[in-house]
Amino acid sequence: MTSDTSSAVRKVRSGVSHILLIVVGIAFLVPLLYAVSTSLKPADEVFTPTPEWIGSEIRWQNYADAFTFAPFGRYFLNSLFVAIAGTLVVVVASSLSAYAFARLKFRGREQLFVLFLGTLMVPQEVLIVPMYWLMQSLGWVDSYWALILPWAFTAFGTFLLRQFFLTVPVELEEAARVDGCGPIGSFLRIMLPLARPAIAVLTVFTFIAFWGSFLWPLIIINSVAEKGTVPLGLAQFIGQQGTQWNLMMAASVMAMLPTVLLVILLQKHLVRGLLVTGLGGR
């Protein structure tokens, strides 16, 4: 095969790849754009015989009405607190346990890690009833503790960071020990700074999981007006008198903003973390 033929084949493959990416991107963007369009329509124009992207008027007032229809400001603050606190706990616990599984030598380490990973195969729905009994025995029902702690210790973050720690050369830690660093010093000064891309990936995934959780808050929270989260707040737009679709779409668009901003802020580390996390090991 000549160089000209190889170059032509590469150009064709590149063109096909770009076309597929554009198609997939459009498939993801259409529902989002339709939600934004619906959030700006009058209530009586949401469902029409012929779907229209733009209503007779652009009602920015829908966003203000969404906040007054339900205490959505409170829901936002609750979700931010739960998501930020839960993410911090997950990152701290996962980084410590990942470092232990990746670097510390102790009997039964590999077997314990496999058993730890096995917890990922248990669906969350299976744990709802025993977790509720545990929260009830601790007196944490209808509390922020119940929203944060039960799902803050998972094997996913440990596995993610452990795989990244295994890509770090052992020689860096050995050099740190020569300079007088112990395991804790090596963890804080060597491993954590290098693991920022992986931590960014874990932060985004964990924040989104806490932010979008619906089933567990629905079960464990009784005083929705005071301690309800954004997903519970969105359910308030569905009532016996019908669903306020334009207001729900306005609230949904606002609910997406924190996660979008987080991804934008961590984009640099996120891309690098997705490229290198889990590709190495010793």
Explain this structure to me?
The chain has helices at 3-39, 61-69, 72-103, 109-118, 124-138, 144-148, 155-165, 170-178, 183-194, 196-212, 215-220, 224-227, 230-235, 245-265, 267-276; strands at 238-239, 242-243. The longest helix is centred in the N-terminal third of the chain and has 37 residues, at 3-39. Strand 1 (238-239) and strand 2 form a beta hairpin. The chain has two domains: 1-58; 69-277, MetI-like (MetI-like fold, Orthogonal Bundle). It is mostly helical. It has a two-stranded antiparallel ribbon with strand order 1-2. Helices cover 72% and strands 1% of the residues. It is globular. Residues 278-282 have low confidence and may be disordered.
Q: CATH topology of the largest domain, which one? A: MetI-like fold
What is the CATH top level name of the largest domain?
A: Mainly Alpha
What strand line-up does the widest sheet have? Answer: 1-2
Distance between the termini: 39 Å
Question: How many individual domains?
Answer: 2
The class by helix and strand makeup works out as: mainly alpha
The CATH architecture assignment of the largest domain turns out to be: Orthogonal Bundle
Q: Uncertain segments of ≥5 residues (pLDDT<50)?
A: 278-282
Total strand segments = 2
Radius of gyration: 24 Å
Question: How is the biggest beta sheet arranged?
Answer: 2 strands, antiparallel
Mean pLDDT: 81
Tally of separate helices: 15
H/E element string? Answer: HHHHHHHHHHHHHEEHH
Q: What is the helix content? A: over 70%
Overall body shape: globular
Beta-strand percentage range: under 5%
CATH superfamily of the largest domain: MetI-like
Organism: Kribbella steppae
Membrane topology: Multi-pass membrane protein
InterPro entries: MetI-like (IPR000515), MetI-like_sf (IPR035906)
Family: Belongs to the binding-protein-dependent transport system permease family.
